[in-house]
Specification:
Shape: globular
Helix content: 25-40%
Strand content: 15-25%
Largest sheet: 7 strands, mixed
CATH architecture of the largest domain: 3-Layer(aba) Sandwich
Number of helices: 16
CATH superfamily of the largest domain: Alkaline Phosphatase, subunit A
Distance between the termini: 34 Å
CATH topology of the largest domain: Alkaline Phosphatase, subunit A
Bound molecules: calcium ion
Length: 518
């Protein structure tokens, strides 16, 4: 894999050099123009991408983007589930500050006057627009954008200017559906976990979104103000629906299974979960573990969907080239968290393990390094100050993150000692209440402390040596020889804050909170 990764990097550097030679020299007026931003958010994408060293990924377009920018090899989301992670990235605040730990809380409940990342750009003269999923669906934020939030179902969503909690929906055109019309449904209302679609790219939501984004880029490029265009892609989130040609790119027999199919030795049971999200889909047999046949099909579908999304990303990059603005547009691509494909016996996200918290982050910025990988730990809260810094905007006040522009110039550097993720859990064995697991990752170790939610008592700890045990097979926290490692990393634990809404509600009612399975 090392050789392959080296070859990929080498090719990326070569392509970047060719691109730089071919790029026309910018004249003085052009160089003074503000940079545009194209943000590409990919739902549930773990770094199974060629530029991250994957042997089986078919991702030529994300690899093409990597050749133009910096791949952050150790970027971590702040909580491995959609809304908390996206909210954290787009507000520049950790979940402990946004108070968004679930899929049913708007960040303006706790932070009514928060200036979001796109809102900051809007305040500095940018035209800001959102296509498809950026915030979690149903928790949009009208103040963030210059126009209503567009979705591939043919509708837009805005929020009442006087009341952020009131959504204003409008029908603006025809939309597209994901499944075939006669798809069977589970009791949850969800269809099959996998579908080999007979539809063309643009007859599915992500292709439809890419077509809209291509049109927007062509229009925005002609405006006299810079733009911040955010484009969300829904795949590879479940269900794995992609046109047949993307399934045909992958041979399921060559897609490897997990290195470990059960929880790490010595890990607390509540570090895992019961695969609740997957079990909501039609055709997934109840109970665990997931059978080998189903698992093989799911892994095939996940990679097919990555390739489908990758093709849509390529259309956006082509649109920048065709509009002649690639050399004055910062492109940032992120997956909102990692994904477990049966690893540890787990599917989807919702944990503090490496595979759930580590996600792709690629930034291509004019004048910065190209075709290189930054391996120091970074966090999604760093995206907000990075983009503001890269575009010459003043920094917003009170952000939790750090600008990564120094790493865009010198990818071998480091801007922070650790990345911190967190995940709430219900009542654990032997505890008196809901827990908050804080997971601290440096350049070698992952230390997780499960603490009383809103309290100080630590009820369980985990320590994994990511250098020598990257599959996280053994929890080393009880081994005395690693006490100094734990002591050093534990200093990064955040101070106790108020309990999460779920913990507060459980304490008030006296009922046990249930583990999160969303
Ligand atoms: Ca997600």
């Amino acid at each position: 894999m090392l050789l392959e990764r080296t070859l990929v990097r080498g090719l990326a550097c070569l392509l970047a050099t060719v691109a730089a030679v071919r790029a026309p020299a910018a004249n003085a007026a052009e160089s003074r123009r503000p940079l545009n931003v194209l943000m590409i958010a990919v739902d549930d994408l773990r770094p199974d991408i060629g530029c991250y060293g994957s042997r089986i990924a078919k991702t030529p377009h994300m690899d093409r983007l990597a050749a133009r920018g910096v791949v952050f090899g150790h970027a971590y989301c702040q909580q491995a589930v959609c809304s908390p992670s996206r909210t954290s990235l787009l507000t520049g605040q950790r979940p402990d500050a946004t108070r968004v730990f679930d899929l049913k809380t708007h960040f303006r409940t706790a932070l009514p006057d928060c200036v979001t990342l796109p809102q900051h750009f809007k305040a500095h003269g940018y035209h800001c627009a959102a296509l498809s999923k950026l915030y979690h669906r149903g928790y949009e934020d009208g103040r963030s954008w210059s126009e209503p939030h567009w979705y591939p179902n043919g509708k837009t969503v805005d929020t009442d200017p006087d009341d952020w909690s009131q959504q204003v929906t409008a029908k603006v055109g025809n939309g597209v559906e994901e499944y075939a019309t006669d798809t069977p449904r589970a009791e949850s209302g969800k269809g099959p976990a996998c579908e080999v679609s007979s539809k063309a790219d643009d007859e599915l939501p992500d292709g439809f979104t890419a077509a809209e984004a291509v049109r927007r880029i062509a229009t925005l490029a002609k405006q006299d103000k810079p733009f911040f265009l955010a484009v969300g892609f829904l795949k590879p989130h479940l269900p794995f629906v992609a046109p047949k040609k993307y399934w045909d790119l992958h041979d399921p027999a060559t897609i490897p299974g997990p290195a470990i199919d059960h929880l790490p030795e010595g890990a607390p049971a509540f570090a895992g979960h019961a695969n609740g999200e997957l079990h909501q889909y039609f055709g997934i047999p109840p109970g665990n573990p997931i059978s080998d046949d189903v698992a093989r099909r799911l892994r095939h579908g996940y990679h097919a969907c990555i390739s489908y999304t990758d093709a849509q990303i390529g259309r956006l990059l082509d649109a920048l080239d065709q509009a002649g603005i690639a050399d004055r547009t910062v492109v940032v691509l992120w997956g909102d968290h990692g994904w477990q494909l049966g690893d540890h016996g787990l599917w989807h996200k919702h944990t503090n393990f490496e595979l759930a918290t580590r996600a792709p982050l690629i930034v291509a910025a004019p004048g910065c390094a190209a075709g290189q990988t930054a391996d120091a730990p970074v966090e999604f809260v760093d995206v907000y100050p990075t983009l503001a810094d890269a575009c010459g905007l003043p920094s917003a006040a009170g952000l939790a993150g750090t600008s990564l522009v120094p790493l865009l110039r010198d990818p071998q550097g480091s801007v922070k000692p650790v990345a911190i993720s967190q995940y709430p859990r219900g009542k654990g064995d032997g505890t008196d209440g809901p827990l908050m697991g804080y997971s601290i990752r440096d350049d070698r170790w992952r230390f997780t402390a499960w603490r009383e939610d809103g309290g100080v008592q630590i009820v369980a700890t985990e320590l994994y040596d990511e250098r020598n045990d990257p599959a996280e097979t053994r929890n080393l926290a009880s081994d005395p020889q690693f006490k100094s490692v734990i002591d050093r990393l534990a200093k990064h634990l955040p101070p106790p804050g108020p309990p999460s809404p779920k913990a507060a509600k459980a304490a008030k009612s006296g009922r046990k909170a249930q583990p999160a399975t969303l």
